[in-house]
């Protein structure tokens, strides 16, 4: 009895495997011939008009809410690159900015029009600055930023790879051209404290910059670029450098400088004592200082809200156009029995 059951099961096994193989080959054949069951919706005028109307009714309110949230963020924007040039150097700005013997101190006054709730974010904005240029973006070594002098393959950093025959840490044009204008803020002769901690991404601080990598031989060449770095502080703690080296995608960009942790009342005058060091005059660039609050959507940016409103309005216009055309020139629906047959098969 037992032997017969074993033999029966052994005879049944090949039948099962052949059945599975035939089933797989049939499914593969149906897939190749595009005969698998599929949903094939028939787009009638009513369904198309309904979809466009729903898109409009959903997108426009979202756009209005987003735009309102963006407008709730208050900004003070001050372009200072021209005003901080003395009158006698306005004709030749480049000679002023490249002459280290001329003091670069400048004072700006920013009047607060609306209540600004802390934290108030401080940004510097550069215009007509192509940080996305291919040669500029490639001039860095991510491995060196993480491992320091242990990593020596830094040929991509040219022409800022070596100085006086010694490797530069951090190397590359991005690091060399770091922004070096400085700002100090006061209100009614009382200094406003600027918090410059946690201005860089946490992932960058912890995973992209070595905790034991220190600046070495940086800005020691004949051609000095932008800011200098403290050789006693590791790169992972120099957050202004971490913010700068994350290259921007567009020719106009903002980078976070710090935060003011005090509220500003309407009518307050913020006195900004800055040092105008950074050279944007050689390429007709612009420099701006921005104080900004934030809302639940972030800083002030109308693009997303306007995009939702435009798409929603376009959808409603398209749906109305289709509706008028359908009412003016109605057409009978075609026979869609072929679709039902293909679905059943």
Any overview of this molecule?
One of its GO terms (cellular component) is plasma membrane. With 345 residues, this protein is an alpha+beta fold. It has 2 domains: 44-73 and 298-326; 75-293. 37% of the residues lie in helices and 17% in strands. Helix 2 packs antiparallel against helix 9 (303-328). Residues 1-10 have low confidence and may be disordered.
Number of DSSP helical runs:
10
How much strand?
Answer: 15-25%
Largest sheet features: 5 strands, antiparallel
If strands are numbered along the chain, what order do they take across the biggest sheet?
1-11-3-9-8
Number of strands: 11
Report the average pLDDT across residues.
88
The oligomeric state is single chain
The assigned structural class equals alpha+beta
Distance between the termini: 45 Å
Query: What does the radius of gyration come to?
Result: 32 Å
Shape, principal axes of CA atoms: extended
Organism: Arabis alpina (Alpine rock-cress)
Protein name: ALA-interacting subunit
Transmembrane segments: 47-67, 303-325
InterPro entries: CDC50/LEM3_fam
């Amino acid at each position: 009895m037992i032997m017969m059951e074993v033999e029966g099961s052994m005879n049944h096994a090949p039948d099962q495997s052949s059945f599975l193989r035939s089933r797989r080959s049939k499914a593969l054949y149906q897939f190749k011939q595009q005969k698998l069951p599929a949903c094939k919706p028939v787009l009638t005028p009513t369904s198309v008009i309904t979809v466009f109307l729903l898109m409009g009714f959903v997108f426009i309110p979202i756009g209005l809410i987003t735009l309102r949230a963006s407008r709730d963020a208050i900004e003070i924007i001050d372009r200072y690159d021209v005003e901080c040039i003395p009158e006698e150097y306005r004709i030749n700005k480049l000679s002023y900015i490249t002459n280290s013997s001329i003091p670069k101190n400048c004072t700006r006054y920013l009047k607060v029009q609306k209540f600004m709730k802390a934290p108030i974010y401080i940004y510097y904005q550069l215009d007509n600055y192509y940080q996305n240029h291919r040669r500029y973006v490639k001039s860095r070594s991510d491995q060196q930023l993480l491992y320091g002098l242990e990593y020596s393959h830094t040929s991509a950093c040219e022409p800022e790879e070596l100085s006086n025959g010694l490797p530069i840490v951090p190397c590359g044009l991005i690091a060399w051209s770091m922004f070096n204008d400085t700002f100090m803020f006061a209100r009614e002769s009382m200094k406003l404290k600027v918090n410059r901690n946690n201005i860089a991404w946490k992932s960058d601080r912890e995973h992209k910059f070595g905790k034991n990598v220190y600046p070495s031989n940086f800005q020691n060449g004949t051609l000095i670029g932008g800011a200098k770095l403290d050789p006693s502080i590791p790169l992972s703690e120099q957050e202004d450098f971490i913010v700068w080296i994350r290259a921007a995608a567009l020719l106009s960009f903002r980078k976070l400088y710090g935060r003011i942790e005090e509220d500003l009342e309407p009518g307050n005058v913020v006195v900004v004592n800055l040092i105008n060091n950074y050279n944007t005059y050689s390429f007709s660039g612009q420099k701006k200082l921005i104080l900004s609050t934030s809302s639940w959507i972030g800083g002030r940016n109308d693009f997303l809200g306007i995009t939702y409103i435009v798409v929603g309005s376009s959808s409603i216009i398209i749906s109305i156009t289709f509706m008028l055309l359908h009412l003016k020139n109605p057409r009978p629906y075609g026979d869609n029995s072929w679709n039902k047959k293909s679905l059943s098969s």
